[in-house]
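Write out the 3D structure for:
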Amino acid sequence: MLNRLSPVLLLIGLMMIVTVASAETEQAAETRTALIIIDVQDFYFPGGALPLEGPEAASLNCKKLIDKFRAEDQEIVHVGHKVREGGGFYTDVAPLEGEKIVMKSEVSAFNGTDLTAYLQENKITNLVICGMQTHMCVEGAVRAAYDLGFEVLLVGDACATRTLKNDDDAVAGADVHKSTLMTLNGAYAKVVDTETFLKGR
């Protein structure tokens, strides 16, 4: 009896393996990633209305990410904040024709824009986020993205912010930047540096 059933059991086992493999392949095919560059605009650089600390280094790292995504023909979304002056995208991150541009009026890039719909229409499930300011629009985008169900990776050294002041109190820009990344890491995103991301770790 056992010998008669063995071919049947073997066939069932093979069918289960094929089914599982097909499901895993389909899931992998459905995983698409987009790079979201937040507010890397002229007004955050020296001579602008609100210069940050180290925006040039952050923008160069943003450029490295953009170059990788362009080389791999992956989705890139440029987010900008609507301002009266200095609203142009900084030269390092200037969009190419055909790349998605989202202009916003709120802190979060998802608030009052078509970003969510665009990502869903393009079947994007994972986001790589970078930009300015770390503690404001970058943080706002990361938190919103997580709440919307996206898998988020935040590239910390491709972000920049500034010293915060309130009357006689001040928090150094480096501390604002670091504390924001530490708060988001593990809860809303995985935080990595540019070189780690480029190496695929």
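The first strand starts at residue 33 and ends at 38.
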